[in-house]
Design a protein that fits this description.
The complex is a heterodimer of chains A (275) and B (315). By secondary structure, chain A is mainly α. Chain A contains 11 helices and 2 strands, in the order ααααβααααβααα. Chain A has one domain. The two termini of chain A are 35 Å apart. The mean pLDDT of chain A is 90. With 315 residues, chain B is an alpha/beta fold. Chain B folds into 2 domains: 124 residues, 3-Layer(aba) Sandwich (Rossmann fold); 126 residues, Response regulator (Rossmann fold, 3-Layer(aba) Sandwich). Chain B has 11 helices and 11 strands. Chain B has a 6-stranded mixed sheet, sandwiched between helices. At the A-B interface, helix 1, helix 8 and helix 10 of A face strand 7, helix 7 and helix 9 of B.
């Protein structure tokens, strides 16, 4: 049964998932690239947050550090692809693997956030803080995509040659897109750490899948970057909460999750074909 | 011509100098090979309790042998293939007299090599899943399994009014699933309803703990590495919902967790070291010391949390 407290937790996790959804959207729909770096950026965001917290940095600086770390990783990974000729999946894997070691060296396998830095001890309720951050990120990305830079970002993903023929560098615009995507993932990682109060080196596992699934569910509502797209992240978390509340053998959880997504897609396909 | 020759000399001299500096650096970076006999340590992944168990083992061995024995330490970082490669390399390293494995996957990897070298493990929850390839494998070690029934009864004795118990665990963790089965039997004996909550990744922890605290009178966590990393999250939810929460992953009392019922991982490592010493000193052909499959749990309560839950406790 979905109680108010559980719905509150769904909303909190949905906000973090929303940032991952934005990251996946930018990579797959704008840059037209399968970027596995996102999972590493989520972890690196957590590492940056822990490090910033140890120096008693204010929240804004913590989030800025995490976003920048994620963005840098995204750009570096893209450079591995463009300048060293690594396959984009390989460059993502290499970056994520490197983050694992960086995380281990910088903060260890497990670290806790000082109580003073927790979102729960902030001036506003956690959900409001997360909602504002997600809203601000969403508005910024939407605005950027509507500018000339945004148009070039979209064009670079779809047809790099065309952008080059206009005298612009597709590499720069692809880097902006991937930097933005990974920055969003880094921000999600930091918020996850600041909300749950722990960082675990393996904590990023499954976050990319959650982001992709959320985007797929969001795609049922709209194909463009509009508010209903973000609903996907909340529906995904709600779906998971419903499954765990069913009380069936937990070994079936992931199969049920997959079945739910298949059903949703079948409904969409049938509705569209009927139209 | 006259102008280029000194430049060439300069370049060659610089190259020679940097080469020499590089060699010196390498010599400093890579110390001379250690000739001492060694114990190979394979750790499944980095985790605070596993690190503590390793410390306990190393300290006990150092206490007995001083610096006459070396340690070759490798961490598989959760990668099964990496654990297998490390185990195989240790099997073929003549310096290594004994392989010490921390947690299940490292032990399984060492056993898979079929080595004749003695293997000692620690922090394995269920030893029944360890299947040696070599029938004559000299295997000893200490499981971190606690008496699950005792754990359940102790928790329920503290809160006799509990009717529904939530058990969050990772269904993919064999040791954890085994412990959950034992816990369920004990809970049924006490007439409690059980709600299982599966967690496959750490990202799922917040929502699972929120649901568990909402839907049950108490939350009992088994020994589970996935659950272990999210104890702080459980503590937050338990505190908000006034739900008694119990853990047995570690024995660090914290606000929000009513009680811990755990083994001391440092001692566990030290006890494994005692078995390793026996294996190293006993004559060839002697049977290895028996595997310690279960330990009595040490109860620790958080007085402030218990008070908030309406129970007066002083231990």
């Amino acid at each position: 049964m979905l109680t108010v407290a559980l719905l509150h937790e769904i909303a909190i996790q949905g906000c973090i998932g929303g940032l991952m959804l934005l990251a996946v959207f930018l990579c797959s729909e704008i840059a037209h690239k399968d970027d596995l770096t996102i999972e590493g950026s989520f972890s690196l965001g957590g590492v940056a947050a822990i490090l910033a917290c140890t120096y008693h940095a204010p929240l804004l600086l913590v989030l800025l550090a995490a976003t920048s770390a994620g963005a840098c990783l995204g750009v570096l990974s893209h450079m591995l692809h463009t300048h060293l000729g690594l396959n984009s999946i390989m460059s993502g894997l290499c970056s994520t693997a490197s983050v694992f070691s960086i995380g281990l060296v910088c903060v260890g396998s497990y670290a806790t956030v000082p109580a003073s830095a927790l979102l729960a001890n902030g001036p506003l309720p956690v959900l409001l803080q997360l909602g504002c951050i997600l809203g601000a990120t969403f508005l910024f990305v939407s605005w950027l995509l509507s500018t000339e830079v945004g148009l070039c970002m979209k064009a670079s993903g779809e047809n790099g040659l065309m952008v080059r023929s206009l005298g612009k560098s597709p590499f720069v615009f692809q880097s902006i897109t991937l930097g933005l995507a990974n920055g969003s993932a880094g921000l999600a990682g930091a918020l996850f750490v600041l909300n749950t109060s722990f960082f675990s080196i393996t904590g990023n596992i499954g976050m990319l899948v959650a982001g992709i699934s959320s985007l797929m569910i969001g795609g049922l509502f709209t194909r463009h970057l509009r508010l209903p797209l973000l609903l996907g992240a909340f529906v995904y978390q709600g779906l998971f909460a419903c499954i765990i509340s069913l009380g069936i053998n937990p070994a079936w959880n992931n199969l049920l999750k997959a079945l739910f997504i298949i059903i949703l897609f079948s409904i969409r396909t049938h509705t569209r074909s009927a139209q | 011509m006259h102008n280029t020759l000194p430049k060439k000399h300069l370049v060659l001299s610089l190259l020679a100098l940097s080469g020499a500096a590089g060699l010196v650096g390498l010599a400093l970076f890579f110390p001379a090979p250690d000739k001492r006999p060694a114990i190979g340590i394979i750790q499944t992944l980095s985790h605070p309790i596993l690190d503590i168990a390793r410390e306990g083992f190393v300290d006990a061995i150092r206490k007995r042998y001083g610096n006459t024995i070396a340690f070759v330490y490798h961490n598989a970082q959760g990668d099964v293939n990496q654990a297998q490669t490390i185990a195989t390399s240790m099997t073929h390293d003549d310096r290594i007299a004994l392989i010490f494995c921390i947690a299940t996957r490292a032990t399984q990897a060492a056993l898979k090599t079929g080595t004749e070298k003695p293997i000692v493990f620690t922090a394995v929850t269920d030893s029944s899943i360890l299947q040696p390839k070599n029938e004559h494998a000299r295997l000893a070690g200490c499981c971190d399994m606690i008496d699950a029934a005792d754990y359940v009864h102790t928790c329920l004795d503290l809160f006799p009014g509990v009717r529904t118990c939530a058990i969050p665990y990772n269904p993919a963790d064999q040791g954890s699933a085994c412990m959950v089965s034992t816990m369920e039997k004990a809970l049924k004996q006490r007439g409690c309803r059980i709600k299982r909550f599966g967690v496959c990744s750490e990202a799922e922890l917040p929502l699972t703990f929120a649901a568990a605290c909402q839907e049950a009178d108490a939350v009992l966590c088994p020994i589970d590495s996935t659950i272990g990393v999210g104890i702080e999250v459980l503590a937050q939810h338990a505190l908000t919902t006034h739900t008694p929460a119990f853990i047995c992953t570690d024995n660090l009392p914290r606000l929000g967790i009513a009680a811990t019922f755990s083994v001391n991982y440092y001692d566990l490592g030290a006890r494994s070291a005692a078995q390793a010493i026996t294996l190293l000193t006993q004559p060839a052909g002697s049977p290895p010391p028996p595997i310690i499959t279960s330990n009595p749990g040490i109860l620790g309560v958080h007085t402030q949390t218990m008070k908030a839950l309406g129970v007066e406790a002083s231990c």
